[in-house]
Design brief:
heterodimer; A: mainly alpha; MetI-like fold; two-stranded antiparallel ribbon; 14 helices; 1% strand; B: mainly alpha; 13 helices; 0% strand; globular
Chain lengths: 319, 270
């Protein structure tokens, strides 16, 4: 049985009964400092550097031409056709992966919340896609499943067609015909277990007496789900969507492996576009500016995510 | 009392489970086949078993890549714990002032996309002559997992009952005794779960590994993509390599199943 946060009580957050003296304050801070300093140095300084580099005209193929250009990289970022495509692809990719995997995860969680023969085994098997190394999973989908000649998908279709008397099944080249859906499906496969786990934890944290009362009052299963379970699940769904969004926006492995952003730039998302700008075009200034824009975009999503996590967190702290 | 599924829904549940598991099963199955049996249409799942692919992998030097991965993930996990446990202590048992602000600072670093840090990190690492060095990955993975570990460990340490801590202090027990007798028994399962989560994330990391290493320090995921470009496509061997590199995480993940969701939600959901 998993438990979440009990409903908030009125008790204030735990604080020392007396205000600690100066010496004591510092004694408390000492264990925190190594982690804090390490985090600031390794994660914050690179972003300062990115900000600085984003104001330079800097291509390493033309050494000696590095100079300050103010905000012109940003003008480029906001007017460049490729980057606009990349932004759009990122939105499409992230939104479809997150929404589909939340819906599938919800369905699976509702099933797994009930008892049935082999439930433990089914749960373990369902987690597996999330644990396969992402690069390995992408290669697996690209070569073992989507391959037009001997992939599992066409192979299965072929077997089915032959079973029903046809000569040969269709030979679809999945990755070049449907590049974006191909990437989305492989990512949905990886992220559905994540959503399922979070939603399942939510379902199992439902107060049993409320459900029991609804049953005694003769509420139908559907009505109970809509009026009791879904409102209760809301914060878990939000958490899954927001964390999923933050991770999926950063997708690099799947695009790099399955489509290399192609055909053309039809599946190039922002991380992959920044990678190309950096290591194929060597336009450091432009890459940095695009990076800053991605950070700003992430801050918007993160603000919502932090608010949701903060509300879960406050409930827990106030216990 | 948990309700039961009807036979029809049990069937649906198992059908969905098998559909999700099919690619994993296919990967493992193909890895035990000969190349000729792997790339057939229609598929031949019942082809004879062989360990040839695994033997070839080890004779083709997958070992250094696995060792690099193991070193990067194990050492970074140990470093994360060394930094996160004291920090979590200062955020729960003896909290500093404004400790929630500190928590959210750690969390916010996790929300910044790693790709935006790649360029400066690459330039700094190149200047320092640290390209293609496992220690570069160790430092980056430590930073990447530290916020997760701080949040997870805090949520475990917060379960240590305040009353017992206060009682022990009143009785004059020294800090070490309190840590050993009261804190450790509650924190140890949390410590294990936290290290498994950190291990999983660093073992699977690809973006920094592929861009910051070349030959000496490359990790398992880099081996996988290099394998395709260098050798053309060998499906059975690819599946063997994919199975082999995923195995440690599959084992760690199944072992940490109950704690997985807590780690993934940064301790927000138990």
């Amino acid at each position: 049985m998993t438990t979440l946060t009990t409903p908030p009580r009125t008790a204030p957050p735990p604080a020392g009964p007396r205000t600690p003296s100066g010496v004591d304050k510092w004694r408390r801070r000492i264990p925190l400092l190594p982690a804090l300093i390490f985090t600031i140095v390794v994660t914050q300084l690179p972003f300062v550097a990115t900000l600085v580099i984003s104001t330079f005209r800097w291509n390493i193929l033309r050494p000696g031409e590095r100079h300050f250009t103010g905000l012109s990289n940003y003008t480029f970022v906001f007017t460049d056709e490729r980057l606009r495509t990349a932004v759009l692809n990122t939105v499409v990719l992230t939104a479809s992966v997150v929404l589909i995997s939340v819906l599938l995860g919800l369905g699976l969680a509702v099933l797994l919340d009930r008892r049935f023969p082999g439930r433990g085994l089914a749960r373990t098997m369902l987690i597996a896609p999330f644990l396969v190394m992402p690069v390995a999973a992408s290669l697996l989908w690209k070569h073992a499943i989507y391959n037009p000649d001997y992939g599992l998908l066409n192979g299965t279709l072929n077997t089915l067609y032959r079973f029903f008397g046809a000569d040969h099944g269709p030979t679809v080249d999945w990755v070049s015909t449907y590049p974006m859906p191909a990437v989305v499906v492989s990512l949905v496969w990886q992220w559905t277990p994540f959503m399922m786990l979070i939603i399942l934890a939510g379902l199992q944290a439902q107060p049993g007496d409320v459900l029991e009362a609804a049953r005694v009052d003769g509420a139908s299963a559907m009505a109970t789900f809509r009026h009791i379970t879904l409102p209760h699940l809301r914060q878990y769904l939000e958490l899954g969507i927001l964390l999923g969004t933050i991770y999926v926006v950063q997708t690099f492995d799947a695009v790099y492996t399955i489509t290399q952003g192609g055909p053309g730039s039809r599946t190039t998302n922002l991380p992959y576009e920044i990678y190309l700008t950096m290591f194929r075009k060597y336009e450091y200034g432009e890459a940095a500016a695009a990076g800053v824009v991605v950070v700003l975009g992430s801050i918007v999503i993160a603000t919502f995510a932090l608010r949701t996590i903060a509300s879960l967190f406050r409930q827990e702290v106030s216990r | 009392m948990t309700a039961r599924l009807t036979p029809l829904w049990t069937f649906v549940a198992w059908l969905a489970t098998l559909a999700f598991f099919a690619p994993v099963a296919w990967m493992v199955l193909t890895s035990f086949h000969q190349e000729a049996d792997a790339a057939t249409n229609p598929p031949s799942p019942l082809a004879p078993f062989t360990f040839d692919q695994y033997e070839t992998l080890f004779s083709r030097d997958i070992t250094p890549f696995l060792l690099n991965s193991a070193m990067a993930s194990v050492i970074s996990t140990l470093l994360v714990l060394a930094l996160a446990v004291p920090a979590a202590y200062a955020l729960s048992i003896k909290p500093v002032e404004k400790w929630t602000d500190v928590m959210f600072f750690f969390l916010s670093t996790k929300f910044l996309p790693a790709i935006a840090a790649l360029l400066p990190v690459y330039l700094i690492v190149k200047d320092a002559g640290m390209l293609d060095n496992v220690w570069t990955l160790i430092v980056l993975y430590t930073a990447m997992n530290l916020p997760i570990a701080v949040w997870m460990m805090r949520s475990f340490l917060a379960e240590v009952p305040k009353e017992i801590l206060e009682a022990a202090e009143v009785d004059g027990a020294n800090l070490l005794t309190v840590l050993w007798r009261v804190v450790a028994p509650i924190a140890l399962p949390g410590l294990a779960a936290t290290s498994l989560i950190c291990f999983i994330f660093s073992w699977n990391e690809f973006m920094f590994a592929v861009n910051l290493t070349a030959t000496q320090a490359s990790t398992a995921p880099v081996f996988l993509v290099g394998f395709i470009t260098n050798e053309g496509l060998f499906l059975a061997r690819l599946c063997a390599a994919a199975t082999l590199v995923s195995l440690p995480v599959l084992i760690a993940g199944f072992a940490a199943q109950d704690k997985l969701v807590r780690g993934l939600s940064l301790g927000a959901v138990k």
